[in-house]
Amino acid sequence: MLNEQKKKTEEKMGKAFDVLRKEFTTLRTGRASLGMLDGITVDFYGTPTPLSGVSNMAMPDARMITIQPWDVKMLGEIEKAILKSDVGLTPGNDGKMIRLSIPPLTEERRQQIVKHAKKLAEDARVAVRNIRRDVNDDIKKKSKGKDAHVSEDETKKLQDEIQKLTDSYIKKIDELLAHKEKEIMTV
User: pLDDT digit string (tens) for 9-32?
Assistant: First the structure.
């Protein structure tokens, strides 16, 4: 039971870390990244569809993203979806494909993005700590009462292991944040 509890905890913490990593891919860094467009959905004949599901996307250089829809009639819908999204880019349409030019970020905008990245990282840390708290509460419940399934020594050992796991995920989050912050602030 203890190993199962630890395994579930590690799985949950891993998911919280993966969510942060995915959110970080959507942040602008001054360079083109297809991850910036991940959250954009297009109305494809009445069905909300991810942008990657209706077009080919490419990065011909570090400051340009091209979007070539499979159906040319979708150009207008794709443009609307990009304009409505919060990526802050203006699409250019040449009748066959859409070009997104990535302008260099100002120092002020870079600092705003770093601030947002720090908030996302803090949310991930809180999620990891909440997972730890819930698991520790569960362990305490199982170690108390008449029908206790776990001894005090096992409880203490498992709580120590959960704390080590928590510390390792917090460290991973901090390292990921430091890397992303460096990437954002690099001109």
Answer: 999 999 999 999 988 887 877 777
